[in-house]
Amino acid sequence: MKICLRYLGDPGYQQGIGQELGVSQATVSRTVDRVVNNIVAQSNEWIKFKTTNHEPMEAKRQCMYKFPAAINVIDCTHIGIPKPNRHGDEYINRKGKPTLTV
């Protein structure tokens, strides 16, 4: 699971992630494939879209982060960082800048 989370959190070269975590590129590939397929298999239970006018208001009320205008929370904000010396190319986003996804 750690391998998949590392890859999904900052998808880069599987070989570089494997070296960082002490496993082969093939292990990274197989692990990501298995975990993602299991998530997709459970997606109907885990991912729910609001279908009535009442549901977004209820989600807002229950939001654990208590953002005043939030009806849901979505991850993946890019935070600018200095390019790391080690595996630095893995941190380059689609705009060519080094970032971490949080």
Please list the strands of the largest sheet in the order they lie side by side: 1-2
Number of helices: 4
Question: What would the principal axes of the Cα set say about the shape?
Answer: flat
| Biggest sheet layout | 2 strands, antiparallel
Head-to-tail CA distance between termini: 18 Å
Average pLDDT level: 80
Cα-based radius of gyration, to the nearest Å: 18 Å
Number of strands: 2
- Binned, the helix content reads 40-55%
Structural class: mainly alpha
Order of helices and strands: HHHHEE
- Taken as a percent bin, the fraction of beta residues is 5-15%
Low-confidence stretches: none
Plain-language structure description:
The chain is mainly alpha-helical. Helices cover 46% and strands 6% of the residues. It has a two-stranded antiparallel sheet with strand order 1-2. The protein has a domain at 1-47. The protein has helices at residues 2-9, 14-21, 25-46, 54-62; strands spanning 78-80, 99-101. The mean pLDDT is 80. The longest helix has 22 residues, at 25-46. α1 (2-9) packs across α3 (25-46) and α2 (14-21) crosses α3 (25-46). It contains four helices and two strands.
